[in-house]
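Recap from last week: sequence in, structure out.
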Amino acid sequence: MFTSKFNSEIMVTAKTTLFDESLQIRASLFKALAHPARLQILQYLAKTKSCISGDISEELPLGRTTVNQHLKELKNAGLIQGQVEGVKTNYCLDYDKIEEMKNLLSGFLDEFETPEGFCCK
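Predicted structure tokens:
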């Protein structure tokens, strides 16, 4: 059982390398956005326009451990920064990475322009 799961994980990882690097980068960022909790964390940090050292889990309908897992995913994607100060961690948006993500998303969506006169219903 363990071997087959391990092999399938290797296969999945190896297959992603078959794609263009720009697609891999986009997929990694989009994956980080693929959960409503992560979107809400990003919205909360954007709304506060500052670093948060308090408990972000108070802003979400999830437990602290689950929120910390989502924060970790956002941090790994580079969308947020976390600076440890004593027993607390200050979380901030990484505005350079956010700008990069906006450009990647915009460029990706620009590839889907609807041809003039196209109608599909």
